[in-house]
Amino acid sequence: MKKILILFIALLTVANITSCNADSSRQETPVEKIKVGGSSEGYPVLEILTEAKNDDSIEIIFMPSSQSSGGIRGVKDGLINIGVISKQLTAAETSDKIKYIPIVRNLQFLIINEKVTGVQNLSTKQIQDIYSGTINNWKELGGPDAEIILLDIPEDETEKQILRKHHLGENLQITPKAIIFQEDDQVIKAIASTPYSIGLVAQSQELEEFTIEILNIDNFIPNQANIQNGKYKMTQTIGIVISSQPTSVTQKFIDFILSKEAKQKLELAGFVTVD
């Protein structure tokens, strides 16, 4: 009887040790980290992809956003694994240390406050006249008798550079009455709360949170069809840069980003994916 009891206790002890070791093994499964930094315009794209990946073995850390140049420099210096950029690489930024991968083309809009009624479209000439101050009342464009409040962003922002390239021209002088916002993501909130205002923003889910109107440009609706046929020109390419020798976990995430599943997730969110 004593032998049976001792054997039972021994087996129970072994079982407990095995169970504890298994639990410990599960708890100690390493989580690999990927650091992301760079352009704030591209963060929503990476956030959608991170949620879609849904991999408990990977922790994706979003560093405080900056600009595209910060993302490029961060990857080159080894401070981050993925740099988010919202522009094409320049010759000076190209390096054999990094690899560039375009992901989506993102729409840019001219939006107006809800009090601006009767205005649905602006021509390139009218856009130039608003930004130069030649036109300063909405009545001149078929809208209400109210002063146009122009909310602008700095010249080094990608959105402003694209607006200049396609509609303003390089040499147009912006009216001194324009109110400049240092952070372009502040413009949406400001236009929603500032009567008779107009400004330039990039597509984001935040647009759905406010009552604003999106304008057509040169009679072209800003949609996927007009992006693909080239009629609506206000788009920016959102992409990423990675090390030419990425970590294995970074490469695993990149493989997912380039997958059909990831592209479908982005298209459902309203982005035009890049083949």
Characterization of this structure:
By secondary structure, the protein is of the alpha/beta class. Helices cover 35% and strands 23% of the residues. The protein folds into 2 domains: 32-105 and 235-273, Periplasmic binding protein-like II (D-Maltodextrin-Binding Protein, domain 2, 3-Layer(aba) Sandwich); 107-228, D-Maltodextrin-Binding Protein, domain 2, CATH 3.40.190. It has 9 helices and 12 strands. The radius of gyration is 26 Å and the shape is elongated. It starts with a helix and ends with a strand.
Detail the topology: elements first, then pairings.
Elements: H1 2-27, E1 32-38, H2 43-53, E2 58-62, H3 68-76, E3 82-85, E4 98-113, E5 121-122, H4 124-132, E6 149-152, H5 158-168, E7 179-180, H6 187-193, E8 197-202, E9 212-214, E10 216-217, H7 224-228, E11 235-243, H8 248-257, H9 260-268, E12 272-273
Parallel strand pairs: 1-2, 1-3, 5-10, 6-7, 6-8
Antiparallel strand pairs: 3-11, 4-8, 4-9, 4-11, 4-12
Quick structural summary:
With 275 residues, the protein is of the alpha/beta class.
SSE ordering:
HEHEHEEEHEHEHEEEHEHHE
Please state the oligomeric state of the protein chains shown. Answer: single chain
Q: Indicate the structural class.
A: alpha/beta
* CATH arch. level architecture of the largest domain: 3-Layer(aba) Sandwich
Give descriptors for this structure.
275 residues; alpha/beta; D-Maltodextrin-Binding Protein, domain 2; disordered N terminus
